[in-house]
Amino acid sequence: MTAETEAGLPPVPNPAMKPLGFWGCWSLTVGVMIGSGIFLLPTVLAPYGLMSFGGWLLTGGSSILLALVLARLAGRTTRTGGPYAYAHDAFGDLPGFLIAWGYWASVWIATPTVALAFVGYLGVFFPALNDNPMTQLAIALALLWGLTLVSIRGVREAGFVQLLMTFLKLIPLILIIFAGLAFGSAENLPAFNPSEGSFISVLATTALLTMWAFAGMEAGVIPAGEVENPQKTMPRAIITGVITVTIVYIASTAAVMMLVPADQLAASTSPFSQAARVLGTWGPPLVAIGALISTAGSLNGNIFTSGQMPLAVALDRLAPKFLAIRNKGHAPYWSLILASSFSSVLLLANFSRGLVGAFTFLLMMSTLTTLIPMLVSAMAEFKHSWRSARGWAAIAVLGALYSIFAILGSGLVVLAWGAVLLAVGVVVFYVGRQRG
């Protein structure tokens, strides 16, 4: 009888088995971070010229600081939940639950968007899809539930799919980087500051534009209970993952800018495909396939974490017991089914014209609620280290300041709706926690 069973919770299936190792955690971090956003960022940043790399460096450097904070926190616990576990340990039941609630909501709210992005890229190969919304909906739902079934089958299977998709999605990005080195020209690079804005204003704008590309780094530390030697594995995986993503983002953006003239890049709707034309006729389709794999991999990671977060909360008796039930593959199948059901409802709502505006609000809230756990994690590290390790406390303060900067960049309306979401979380906390 396991300790969990003695406490009245479902037993752990084969507790000696730990399905995830370094590469599983690394692929969760990289795979969730690199989604569909990177494929449009060179166009978005083109009006700001070479100064846009200041934004990349600021967000990349700040993200590495946050990765260090998460790595240090991960080195102290073997509990599943990532930012939830850190907040719970540092600040107690309610703050911990609210972090889990907001983060879990952000995942299943974002999932339909990623599924729709996949269908959008599929339209490159099947143009008839663009005029058939019902078929688009059917494909998005099939993808969502197909990947949910992968996660329900088991943690090891979901981890393998995530690792495979992560390596495959990196191939076209790396090819573009090498193409930029081989065929790119410095003459194509945009002016240093074509917008003629002040240094601070351009830096702030480009940092806000690029910071969303780093959302998801925490995915690699959430499934701690399923990781072999998590206190060593997860810190190495998340730091390596964030550094990998930072290098790929900056290098691929530079490559596209060297391959596509600045005036064309600013008007492009598919900058990577345009850059890939130097590789021949097979270049643009390869990028489109890479985008499909990228979005599917990000979706797989989202679905996986949507099951792990409720599991962590239920194991602490702060959520209904059934969310902690796992099958022999260690998959919390009821948690996965619940999250994917919510995502399906939002996906269906997106095809109702009257709800598009509300759906957009939910997506903006999703972005906000991925930033708040980073802030609270930095605060938890500061609380732990400010007396004993001033250097780590300073890193936590810098990470917290960056998180606040990112949160404020969401805008007052989104912050207000985020407050509503957390208020609902307070009600759910008192209603849903286990008694006795």
Automatic annotation (TrEMBL):
Residues passing through the membrane, by range: 20-41, 53-75, 96-122, 134-155, 167-186, 198-217, 238-262, 282-299, 331-349, 355-379, 391-408, 414-432
Native species: Hyphobacterium lacteum
Protein origin, superkingdom: Bacteria
UniProt xrefs under InterPro entries: AA/rel_permease1 (IPR002293), APC_superfamily (IPR050367)
One family name in Pfam for this protein: AA_permease_2
Membrane topology: Multi-pass membrane protein
Function description: Major component of the acid-resistance (AR) system allowing enteric pathogens to survive the acidic environment in the stomach. Exchanges extracellular arginine for its intracellular decarboxylation product agmatine (Agm) thereby expelling intracellular protons. Probably undergoes several conformational states in order to translocate the substrate across the membrane; keeps the substrate accessible to only 1 side of the membrane at a time by opening and closing 3 membrane-internal gates.
Keywords linked to the UniProt accession: Cell membrane, Membrane, Transmembrane, Transmembrane helix
Family, per entry: Belongs to the amino acid-polyamine-organocation (APC) superfamily. Basic amino acid/polyamine antiporter (APA) (TC 2.A.3.2) family.
Gene3D superfamilies: Amino acid/polyamine transporter I (1.20.1740.10)
Subcellular compartments: Cell membrane
Record carries keyword Transmembrane: yes
Identification of the protein by name: Arginine/agmatine antiporter
Keyword Membrane attached: yes
